[in-house]
Write a structure and sequence with these properties.
Two copies of one chain form a homodimer. Chain A has five helices and no strands. With 123 residues, chain A is an all-alpha fold. The longest helix of chain A is centred in the C-terminal third of the chain and has 44 residues, at 77-120. The N and C termini of chain A lie far apart (66 Å). The A-B interface holds A 49, 52, 55-56, 74, 77-78, 80-81, 84-85, 87-88, 91-92, 94-95, 97-99, 101-102, 104-106, 108-109, 112-113, 115-116, 119 and B 49, 52, 55-56, 74, 77-78, 80-81, 84-85, 87-88, 91-92, 94-95, 97-99, 101-102, 104-106, 108-109, 112-113, 115-116, 119. The first copy, chain A, binds a DNA duplex (30 and 30 nucleotides) through residues 2-4, 13-16, 18-19, 22, 33-37, 54, 59-61.
Chain lengths: 123, 123
DNA sequence: CATTGACCTGGAGTGCGCTCCAGGACGTAC
DNA sequence: GTACGTCCTGGAGCGCACTCCAGGTCAATG
């Protein structure tokens, strides 16, 4: 698959794909005769998983650490699982935080509604 | 209150307080005789609310827009409420997204556990 | 076989949100 | 009255995560 198709299918821009490869987040992609990148299905699964880690707010340094572990093979399965579990805990904490913040926002919004009624409905 | 105390009580660093004032996120703070900032309780409530908006991932441009509306007085109550409601919706959407991502992560973690058992327990 | 469009590389530029620094002023404690 | 700590300003620097650019190569199309 050429980079333009892979970009669409992975959800990562062409520039981002090349950038990720440069910093080692994606392994060096296979090239065709003319030196162009040629992506396979495995690349797609990995790129999509990286996209998920990004959507989970995992910083690039951590994704890089994960990626390096992955490239070392099955010996690092435990370490990778530990990383994911730690990140899971962070996401749950963030969920809880959001819960509280939404509640606070609701209080503020209610407060605004009351002030608007007081100042606006008298006329 | 002097800036060092205000920094502690607001949770914003001294540099951040000055930076926020520079860009107009905090209104120009009152000064004492010697030109030093002198914060009052109202400043604290506002700074803390700004901190909450930040924790809600509201970008600085939006906080700035909100801040400008606030400085225009009660005429902008409706507009401010609309901003908060829009942001509330974004937070709820993010919560849902996190929910899905955590589920995906759980699947991956389970998968890792299985692979670890297969490769590790045989010895 | 010439043009076009997609691709390549290395490197520079961007936007965000601070954070740090130099050089100077003030005010409190000794 | 001087030393020290805290504050001031304007401006530079930083880390993140891309995004864009110049200059060049290559493959397919008319």
């Amino acid at each position: 698959m050429k980079i333009s198709d892979f970009s669409i299918r992975s959800g990562l821009s062409i520039d981002t794909l090349r950038y990720y490869e440069r910093i080692g987040l994606l392994p060096r992609t296979a090239r065709d005769g003319g030196g162009r990148r040629s992506y396979g299905p495995d690349d797609l699964a990995w790129a999509r998983f990286l996209g998920k880690l990004q959507a989970m707010d995992m910083p690039i340094r951590e994704r890089l650490a994960y990626s390096r572990l992955r490239s070392e093979g099955d010996a690092t399965l435990g370490a990778r699982r530990a990383m994911l579990e730690a990140h899971r805990a962070a996401l749950v904490a963030r969920q809880d935080e959001l819960h509280g913040l939404i509640a606070a926002l609701d209080g503020k919004i209610t407060h605004y509604r009351e002030r608007e009624t007081q100042s606006g409905d008298s006329q």
